Amino acid sequence: MSVIRMNPPEFRVIRDEEKCIKCLVCVRQCGFEAQQYDPEEDRVYSLDENCVACQRCVCLCPTRALRIEQNPVPYKANAHWTPEHIHNINKQADTGGVLLTGMGNDKPYPAYFDRLLLNASQVTNPSIDPLREPMELRTYLGSRPDYLGGEKDRHFGPTPLVPIETPIMFTAISYGAISHQAFEALARAAKAYGTLFNTGEGGLPEDLYEYADHAIVQVASGRFGVHSEYLNAARVIEIKIGQGAKPGIGGHLPGEKITASIAATRMIPEGTDALSPAPHHDIYSIEDLRQLISTLKEATRYTKPVSVKIAAVHNVAAIASGIARAGADIIAIDGFRGGTGAAPLMIRDHVGIPIELAIAAVDQRLREEGIRNRVSLVAAGGFRCSADVVKAIALGADAVYIGTAALVALGCHLCQKCYTGKCSWGIATQDPYKTRRLNPEIGAERLYNLLHGWSHEIKEMLGGMGINSIESLRGNRLHLRGVGLTETELKLLGVKHAGEGM
Ligand code: SF4
Ligand code: SF4
């Protein structure tokens, strides 16, 4: 066992001693024990090596005495052996373990949303002022008939369309991965705004069934918390096949995070590990998936649309086509920037494809096959602002899921240490001392405000394009232009280059 710390601290805590009043707020609030107090010397000091830059102390210090800086690492410049690679090698040489991380891929891959620009009306087809004229953001999710008066679902009979008041929903985040308070905030905000939240694979806590009418409930490979009441209470049922942050692998919530309440919700013994297998052990083909979709529809008497969530991977268009033909009503596609509570670093950063390319490819394929009407497409994975949402819809999505943005609204500062269970902000933790920091009512208000702000901005962008309904934008790629993209990228996205006319 090495006794030398090979890795220097990633961050430095700078304390202005003249401003510090030794209130010890930072000592109490830091979830990672980076802030310390020595009573003998009556001194507040910092352990830089513990700091993860979650910024809790900086935000709460009453005298603004704290600042956190990236610690400059004095390695000799080397474009190939970056400080990050050296840091990771040392970590693994210390532990022999898989590198873990939280939240989404942070590598500088192209963000196609930043290379797409929206159109605006000028003289003809005048723009619309959303403050003076009606503007429709309501979106209906589900399967549509092939022709007027036709069977809505040719395979298993019709399921109803589900309206949402804005094309933005909260993505799957399980109770267990996040605190009850954070989970409740998402549920409350979804209900208040008329949209949906997603239970993830951890079930729906009994005391939150009042929000079930706004819940998408997941049926994942571990089948945690899945029972008849759960399925029948929900608005939508989602079969989770894959996840953008960790395509192709399962999940693991360690036993120390399985409190009595989480155990009851997941229907597993308290303190035992919750292991989600990588595959569903009853799904090895599209026919198997079709069987599960059919079973869930039968179990809920065709009153719930069934969604299938997959990660955006190389063959995503063909996979989506199979899912649509298997009787799904909604396909949710999670791009490689999707967040998570815990993922192996190598998987998170090196597997999957960007959601922009995936959604364009899937929309195009389903249109070509004449089955686009059979499913709604939900895009997920790294939506940062309302413009990203508008661009995704123009590329072919019906609606989007947001996750990281919602957690940021609740206080998350993207320190990526969710897997430790020590989140100082009371989000990705089950420690009662920390979870109390997040008031679900205040959290819900902040989430509501976020939805409200983004929705209004979407109306402004639509109005600028002379469109008064979000459904008229879906797949309307003529309203997009690419900048700095290759011919292949433009072709895959199905957009023209900036400067080309209609
Ligand atoms: S929170 Fe600020 S004022 Fe209070 S002990 Fe820490 S650095 Fe000093
Ligand atoms: S949820 Fe908490 S632990 Fe996870 S990235 Fe955000 S602040 Fe860090």
TrEMBL record:
This is glutamate synthase (NADPH). The keyword Metal-binding applies. [4Fe-4S] cluster 2 binds at residues 30, 51, 54, 57. Keywords: 4Fe-4S, Amino-acid biosynthesis, Glutamate biosynthesis, Iron, Iron-sulfur, Metal-binding, Oxidoreductase. It catalyses: 2 L-glutamate + NADP(+) = L-glutamine + 2-oxoglutarate + NADPH + H(+). It holds the Pfam family Glu_synthase. GO terms for molecular function: 4 iron, 4 sulfur cluster binding; glutamate synthase (NADPH) activity; metal ion binding. The keyword Oxidoreductase applies. InterPro entries: 4Fe4S_Fe-S-bd (IPR017896), 4Fe4S_Fe_S_CS (IPR017900), Aldolase_TIM (IPR013785), GltB (IPR024188), GltB_archl_type (IPR043578), Glu_synthdom (IPR002932). One of its GO terms (biological process) is glutamate biosynthetic process. Residues 11-40, 43-71 form the 4Fe-4S ferredoxin-type domain. [4Fe-4S] cluster 1 binds at residues 20, 23, 26, 61. It comes from Thermanaeromonas toyohensis ToBE. SUPFAM superfamilies: 4Fe-4S ferredoxins (SSF54862), FMN-linked oxidoreductases (SSF51395). Belongs to the glutamate synthase family. Its EC number is 1.4.1.13.
